[in-house]
Amino acid sequence: MSLNKKHLTIMVAIAAIESLTHFGVIAADSPHFFRATEYFLGWREDLPSVGAVRPLLPFLTTTLAPLIGISMSYAVINAILYPISGIICYKLTQRLTKNPLVSLISSVMFLTSVAMIAFGASAYYMGLTIFSEFLVALLALDVWRSKLNALFRGIISGILALSGEATLPYILFGGILTLQRRKYGEAMTYLVFSTLPPLLVPTLLGCNLLQFYLKLNIGYAKSIGYLDLAHWFDPFTRIKFLAAGTSLLMLTGLIIGFLVDKDEDRAKTFYIMFGLTFLAWLTWVPSERRHVYIFYPSISWMSGIGVCWLCETLNQKPILNKLSFKQWLIILLALNALLSNLLAAQWYVGGYLHPLGPIPGLSLPPF
Q1: What gap in Å lies between CA 264 and CA 43, rounded to an integer?
Q2: Closest Cα to residue 237, out of 253, 221, 216?
Q3: How far apart are CA 74 and CA 277, in angstroms?
Q4: Closest CA to 16 of 74, 69, 81, 92
Q5: What is the residue-level pLDDT of the chain in tens, covering all 367 positions?
Q6: What is the DSSP string of 57-106?
Q7: Phi, psi (5° rounding) for residue 337?
Q8: Phi and psi of 173, rounded to 5°?
Q9: Computed from CA positions of residues 289, 294, 299, 300, in that sequence, does the dihedral angle turn out positive or negative?
């Protein structure tokens, strides 16, 4: 299905505004990735473990870093990927729902979600990882078509997995979808070539993946007092982070969409997609709301279904029907974007993220 030009304009405009007003933010552990770039440039001899496990963006920044500086190269690449991620979100939703309007709603909510606003154009690894999640999920839908197709998509997905381990649930999603079609050769081809890079490359770069997980997850949880089952699996904590890291509208739309959507094939796809990302999320300590970015491809499209249904229902109620469906949609998306920007600004003002420019709550490029 083709991409609606008006929808494309809306997505690019929103992405440009959000990326330019939240550009180049430096997270607490961004310097680890900066040192990884220095390693790939030959400027230092030691490679931080995060640079070995997530080497794709540090490696890509070597093309720009000598010209514009390391931190700026991260921000520029992520800012370029910001609208592209929104477009892929649109295409993924369009494939699953066959509805251009739901696709637009899904993309707009994603582009104005809290974690995307705060980190999407930052000097950090997350912008590329979120882009990679969406692209891997979209590629996964057609792995079954042929072994050559599975090989190609497996190689691409394996390379993208080097951006961050949050892509792995979507690789498994592709494997399961293909196995469901009894395409066993295609599934094995895809899974082998998509999992080899994230397993072999860190090892070749001298990183023990098990030690990495134990140190950055288990060890970190212990150091902050979160290494107990009561906190780790506390449903209130998990739901709070999910709402605060995505958005209230996205979470509301997700619940409504799941309840009202009657399409059995979509329901099965959602079970696999969301189930894999939920299990992956449970393996990580619930310490920060930004970690919910792993859910974006699995929930954005279902949230779009729910918000579309919500606006249709509001338009049919007495008194509330004085506003049209379109007006309700604009109001809800605009209020959601405003709230998400305010929550992202709190991250900046709170000191965890270090923005550029003199305006509190924003981060503006210096050029």
Answers
A1: 54
A2: 221
A3: 26
A4: 81
A5: 678 999 999 999 999 999 999 999 999 899 999 999 999 999 999 999 999 999 999 999 999 999 999 999 999 999 999 999 999 999 999 999 999 999 999 999 999 999 999 999 999 999 999 999 999 999 999 999 999 999 999 999 999 999 999 999 999 999 999 999 999 999 999 999 999 999 999 999 999 998 888 887 787 777 777 777 777 788 888 888 888 899 999 999 999 999 999 999 999 999 999 999 999 998 887 777 888 999 999 999 999 999 999 999 999 999 999 999 999 999 999 999 999 999 999 888 887 889 998 888 899 987 6
A6: HHHHGGGTHHHH-HHHHHHHHHHHHHHHHHHHHHHHHHHHH--HHHHHHH
A7: -65, -40
A8: -60, -45
A9: positive
Written as one letter, the residue type at 310 is L
Q: Record the tokens describing residue 336, joined without a space.
A: 């959601």
Place of tokens 């961050």: 164
Rounded Cα gap, residues 101 and 98, in angstroms = 9
- Number of residues written out for the chain: 367
Angle in degrees, 0-180, between the axes of helices 168-180 and 264-282, rounded to the nearest 10: 140
Q: Which amino acid is at 342?
A: L
Whether residue 261 contacts residue 100, with contact meaning beta carbons closer than 8 Å, is answered with: no
Q: What predicted TM-score, i.e. pTM, was given to this entire model? A: 0.95
- Residue 318 identity (one-letter amino acid): P
Q: Cα–Cα distance between 56 and 160 in angstroms, integer?
A: 8
